[in-house]
Write a structure and sequence with these properties.
By secondary structure, the protein is mostly helical. It is about 85% helix and about 0% strand. The chain has two domains: about 90 residues, no CATH class; about 50 residues.
Length: about 170
């Protein structure tokens, strides 16, 4: 009877080892419950044999380490390729920006001449005179803004006085 129990225990151990190998080959996570189900043994059997449990946990750690190393290696390749793609895109953007500057400058000059012509300054080749006119117009606009602010202050003061007079006039104790 003792021999039979030993033989039964040995068969169960072999089934557990085969279940571990099958789970690893399939890429499944190694858990005591899953291995016990696959091997047709109880979880108590695995927990009752600490060496068997330690072997399962050791194999699970090895598999996890192997999977992690593979994922990290794939990640490094991905990060490196992403960095290369970003550098290439940046270089292309710089080239396109350089190509765009020249037409923008020409368009700006052409539009400036057209606007000067429409404003009555037929000779658009007088940039200093136009600049002086622009500065004078800006100074005049600043003066007008200051006058407007002063007029608003006076208007606010007059409104306040008007409110006070109306409130004083409408008091019932007069």
């Amino acid at each position: 009877m003792v021999a039979h129990r030993r033989l039964d225990s040995q068969v169960k151990r072999e089934r557990v080892a085969a279940a571990v190998d099958a789970k690893l080959a399939a890429g499944h996570e190694l858990t005591i419950a899953a291995i016990a189900r696959h091997a047709g043994v109880s979880r108590k059997f695995i927990y009752a044999h600490p060496d068997l449990r330690a072997q399962i946990e050791h194999r699970a750690l090895q598999a996890t380490a192997r999977d992690t190393a593979a994922a990290i290696a794939e990640g490094r390749v991905s990060i490196a390729s992403l960095r290369a793609d970003a550098a290439n895109a940046k270089a292309q953007n710089d080239r396109l920006r350089q190509q765009l500057r020249s037409p923008e400058q020409r368009l700006s000059e052409t539009l400036g001449r057209e606007v000067a012509t429409e404003l009555g300054h037929g000779d658009a080749d007088r940039p200093e005179e136009l600049r002086a006119e622009l500065e004078a117009a800006n100074a005049h606009a600043f003066e007008l803004g200051a006058e407007l602010a002063e007029a608003r202050e006076e208007l606010d003061a007059v409104r306040e006085i008007n409110r006070e007079l109306l409130a004083d006039r409408n008091r019932p104790d007069r």
